Amino acid sequence: MTLLSSREFNQDTGKAKRLAEKEPVFITDRGAVSHVLLSVSEYERLASSGKNIADLLSMDDDIDFDPPRMGDIEFKPMEFD
Question: What is this structure's pTM?
Fold first, then answer.
């Protein structure tokens, strides 16, 4: 993952574009990620999946989930008064 500050991005957009050809470039503003720069081919790959966030979150497949045991810890249901 490549991180560039807004200042770095503004000072050398050519560098940012070259980096984005290899992997997404995350641009920060005051230390927090604010934008992502992608190559057109990567954007088209993501956009052409034909799925939106609702499709991705509503999986119909059964998922086997067997969480690890936490020893002898006993969890009790919460009581609401």
Answer: 0.59
Using the structure block, give the residue that is written with the tokens 């990620």: 33
Rg of the chain on CA atoms, in Å: 21
CA distances from 51 to 12, 20, 39, 46, 54 (A): 34, 23, 20, 9, 8
CATH topology of domain 2-50: YefM-like fold (3.40.1620)
Phi, psi of 71 (to 5 degrees): 75, -140
What are the boundaries of each domain within the chain?
Answer: 2-50
Instruction: Answer positive or negative: Cα dihedral of 52, 58, 59, 65.
Output: positive
The single residue listed with the structure tokens 């957009």 is 13
Q: Say which range, 9-13, 23-27, 67-71, has the weakest mean pLDDT.
A: 67-71
